[in-house]
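Colleagues,

For the teaching module next term, I've prepared a clean inverse folding example: a structure given as tokens, and then the sequence designed for it. I'd like students to try predicting residues themselves before seeing the answer, so please don't circulate the second half yet.
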């Protein structure tokens, strides 16, 4: 009898490709760092930010995010450790810090409420606040020796498009001379375009990112504490696609190799996307010739309202 092809049930099963870690594997791997997390936790946060809670929050975030499950284990653990070192909870309603996947590398980014939380731990700070300004709001401000900031949000109806955002800091014992920073919509949008994680962060937390941008810039110059400066620096590294400082024990060269490999994969992916876009035929008009260039878009009507953005 001639050889018959094997039935589907008899064919050799192909192993399924593993696309990321399992929850059990991640939990077990993270548990190995429980002692380190306990040592990194600041004394003032040790009562609520226990290693068990840190690990539970990390596992919960891991379960909810498919992109996070595809990240390198070391980068996730390092991001969790960085947040713990600052005394910030990751991916909770507090909005203190977030585990942000970028390609296959996880980064830790403090939220604007996390920056405010750290600033208020300084004995110099009395209060820190951040708000978004809309077109219907009553808003005005002035810098200089007679500086002031006035913001009265519209209480009825639609507040319109957002125009600007600001952050204000009251020093302890100097309530009459607050420090504030206003950033216009145009300036904030320009910074958004420069961020390496625009789509991932801004699309999900647009309002928080608008508040965070002037808050972070203001805190850079306030010299409140080392923790604030470190949080701002880590956020700058994450937004710029740079390697965040490793605080867990990693074999020499492995962290740099990881970041280099992921960076090369990201550049290759961007190159493929660019080639796919350039291979599309140019659009033509009715006569088979390329259409005339379109007129430039109208100016943003709100850029004039946030007139002093360039002075921030």
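(Answer key — instructors only)
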């Amino acid at each position: 009898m001639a050889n018959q092809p094997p039935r589907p049930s008899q064919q050799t099963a192909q192993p399924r490709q593993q696309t990321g870690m399992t929850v059990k594997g991640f939990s077990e791997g993270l548990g190995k760092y429980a002692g380190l997390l306990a040592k990194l936790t600041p004394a003032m946060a040790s009562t609520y930010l226990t290693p068990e809670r840190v690990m539970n929050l990390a596992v919960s975030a891991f379960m909810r995010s498919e992109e996070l499950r595809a990240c390198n284990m070391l980068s996730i653990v390092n991001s969790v450790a960085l947040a713990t070192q600052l005394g910030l909870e990751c991916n909770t309603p507090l909005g203190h810090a977030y585990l942000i996947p970028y390609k296959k590398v996880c980064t830790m980014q403090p939220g604007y409420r996390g920056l405010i939380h750290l600033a208020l731990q300084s004995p110099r700070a009395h209060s820190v606040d951040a708000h978004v300004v809309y077109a219907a709001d009553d808003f005005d401000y002035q810098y200089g020796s007679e500086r002031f900031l006035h913001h009265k949000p519209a209480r009825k109806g639609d507040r319109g498009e957002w125009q600007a955002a600001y952050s204000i800091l009251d020093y302890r014992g100097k309530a009459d001379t607050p420090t504030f920073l206003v950033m216009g919509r145009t300036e904030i949008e320009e910074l958004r375009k420069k961020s390496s994680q625009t789509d991932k962060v801004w699309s999900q937390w647009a309002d928080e990112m608008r508040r965070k941008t002037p808050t972070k810039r203001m805190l850079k110059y306030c010299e409140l504490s080392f923790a604030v400066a470190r949080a701002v620096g880590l956020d700058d590294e994450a937004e710029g696609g740079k390697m965040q400082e490793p605080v867990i024990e990693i074999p020499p060269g492995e962290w740099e190799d990881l970041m280099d490999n992921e960076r090369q994969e990201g550049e290759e992916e961007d190159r493929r996307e660019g080639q796919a876009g350039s291979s599309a035929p140019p659009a033509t008009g009715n006569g088979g010739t390329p259409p005339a260039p379109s007129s430039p878009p109208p100016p943003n009507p709100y850029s004039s309202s946030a007139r002093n953005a360039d002075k921030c």
